[in-house]
């Protein structure tokens, strides 16, 4: 599997951005040149786990799957899709949010494309039976600690931004969110009874040095390939976990002399994102700050329906999903913007499978559909053509098919 970035942990070189080794096996299982001499060239085969989930999840996944399939086939890739229930859909089917079969298919795939999880129906479930737990199990057990959330204002969508044109235009940042640690997973946690008999809710923000180092390295490497600026966002004026975070990130900076490192408190960062988002190139931050800041950044780009993500570990398949949720308020109405999921499929190709050409086909097709004026409701502005989720998907498919490289 093609590694996109190499890094070091404790001086041992390891691959950071790659999918499982299954694809290599699959390639070797592909028909040999001699056998196929008269037919088309041997195709690379990949197993993709599709986890549609809940709400708008199935709507956006069905569209993204078609786009992935077509873009891949034009680059000689063949996908074996296996669709499995997760979240509320799995709770309804088998009583747990992450069935063993689903995890096993995901773990043994080359990459996972997930829609969204959650919904009103399960909101009152006990915590371990909430759909969202599936996400935690997946992220934790696949060890995908590095979550890349790019927020780019496309020229076609400047008017859809919540910010004024002159502030939004040209924004292009990458949020590197730590995904398997911090307050989401820290112990102790739970709702307990205190000594005076009162209920107390406990969540613990905790980071070990190695967890900070490995995400910081991913962020330095990412910044190095972008504009060379890294801003580490923390709350080191208050939180002990952030004090250690800042110390470790600072200590690593000498290994990346070509990257300009700065630090910012998270409250200021939330404000600066709105005041002057162009100051940011790469941001590295902990699990919860990354969750919040990426939703904020999405509105600079026009909509949360535009932001894809890639979650990557040191080995095994990557997990690719839009940053948005199941949007129960618009589910089943063909109103969802599928572009975040389609762009997540592009990230799957690029970071998960190392198939940059196929990824570029998808990115170009998205730009082409936007250039032609197609807009779902969340990114609509007067003068454009309002379409639903399915039609947007069909337009992107047409653009992939026409092999037109969009001019931005
Ligand atoms: N990764 C995930 O699966 C994920 C992420 C966030 C929230 N959730 C879950 O989703 C459920 C709803 O959460 P929420 O309402 O806070 O967040 P949400 O992201 O689902 O929706 C927030 C708002 O954004 C809109 N929106 C979201 N995605 C859109 C899209 N693709 N196109 C157009 N509009 C879109 C929704 O209609 C809604 O008004 C909850 O159960 C939550 O836990 C799941
Ligand atoms: C649904 C929720 C558990 C999840 C998170 O907080 O990580 C979501 O908001 C996200 O951004 O992927
Ligand atoms: Mg979130």
Automatic annotation (TrEMBL):
Keywords: Amino-acid biosynthesis, Branched-chain amino acid biosynthesis, Leucine biosynthesis, Magnesium, Manganese, Metal-binding, NAD, Oxidoreductase
InterPro entries tied to this protein: IsoCit/isopropylmalate_DH_CS (IPR019818), IsoPropMal-DH-like_dom (IPR024084), Isopropylmalate_DH (IPR004429)
EC number(s) on file: 1.1.1.85
Enzyme class: oxidoreductase
Domain annotation Isopropylmalate dehydrogenase-like: ranges: 47-396
Pathway as given in its UniProt record: Amino-acid biosynthesis; L-leucine biosynthesis; L-leucine from 3-methyl-2-oxobutanoate: step 3/4
GO molecular function: 3-isopropylmalate dehydrogenase activity; magnesium ion binding; NAD binding
Family annotation (Pfam families): Iso_dh (PF00180)
Catalysed reaction equations from the record: (2R,3S)-3-isopropylmalate + NAD(+) = 4-methyl-2-oxopentanoate + CO2 + NADH
A single GO BP: L-leucine biosynthetic process
Source organism, top-level taxon: Eukaryota
NCBIfam families: leuB
Protein task: Catalyzes the oxidation of 3-carboxy-2-hydroxy-4-methylpentanoate (3-isopropylmalate) to 3-carboxy-4-methyl-2-oxopentanoate. The product decarboxylates to 4-methyl-2 oxopentanoate.
Binding partners and assembly: Homodimer.
Family, as annotated: Belongs to the isocitrate and isopropylmalate dehydrogenases family.
Name used for this protein in its record: 3-isopropylmalate dehydrogenase
């Amino acid at each position: 599997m093609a590694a996109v970035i190499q890094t070091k942990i404790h001086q041992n070189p390891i691959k950071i951005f790659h999918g499982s080794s299954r694809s290599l096996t699959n390639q070797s299982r592909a028909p040999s040149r001699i056998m196929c001499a008269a037919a088309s060239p041997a195709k690379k085969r990949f197993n993709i786990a599709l986890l549609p989930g809940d709400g708008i999840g199935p709507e956006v996944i069905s569209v993204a799957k078609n786009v992935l399939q077509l873009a891949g086939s034009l680059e000689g890739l063949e996908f074996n899709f296996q669709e499995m229930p997760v979240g509320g859909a799995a709770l309804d089917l088998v009583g747990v949010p992450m069935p063993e079969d689903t995890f096993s298919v995901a773990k043994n795939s080359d990459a996972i494309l997930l829609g969204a999880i959650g919904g009103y129906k399960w909101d009152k479930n006990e915590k371990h039976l909430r759909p969202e737990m599936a996400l935690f199990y997946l992220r934790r057990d696949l060890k995908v600690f590095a979550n890349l959330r790019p927020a780019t204002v496309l020229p076609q969508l400047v008017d859809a931004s919540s910010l004024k044109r002159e502030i939004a235009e040209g924004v292009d940042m990458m949020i590197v969110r730590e995904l398997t640690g911090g307050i989401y997973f820290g112990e102790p946690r739970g709702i307990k009874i205190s000594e005076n008999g009162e209920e107390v809710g406990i969540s613990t923000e905790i980071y070990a040095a190695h967890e900070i180092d490995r995400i910081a390295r991913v962020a330095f490497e990412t910044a190095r390939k972008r504009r060379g600026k890294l801003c580490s966002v923390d709350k080191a004026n208050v939180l002990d976990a952030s004090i250690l975070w800042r110390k470790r990130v600072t200590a690593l900076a000498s290994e990346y002399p070509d990257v300009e490192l700065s630090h910012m408190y998270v409250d200021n960062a939330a404000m600066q994102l709105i005041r002057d988002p162009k100051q940011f190139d790469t941001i590295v931050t902990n699990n919860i700050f990354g969750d919040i800041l990426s939703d904020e950044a999405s509105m600079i780009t026009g909509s949360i329906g535009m932001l894809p993500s890639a979650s990557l570990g040191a080995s095994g398949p990557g997990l690719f999903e839009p940053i948005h949720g199941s949007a129960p308020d618009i589910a089943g109405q063909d109103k969802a913007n599928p572009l975040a999921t389609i762009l997540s499929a592009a990230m799957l190709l690029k970071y998960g499978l190392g198939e940059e050409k196929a990824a570029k086909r998808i990115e170009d097709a998205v730009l082409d559909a936007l250039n032609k004026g197609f807009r779902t409701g969340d990114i609509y502005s007067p003068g454009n053509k309002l379409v639903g989720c399915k039609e947007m998907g069909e337009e992107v498919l047409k653009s992939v098919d026409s092999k037109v490289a969009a001019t931005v």
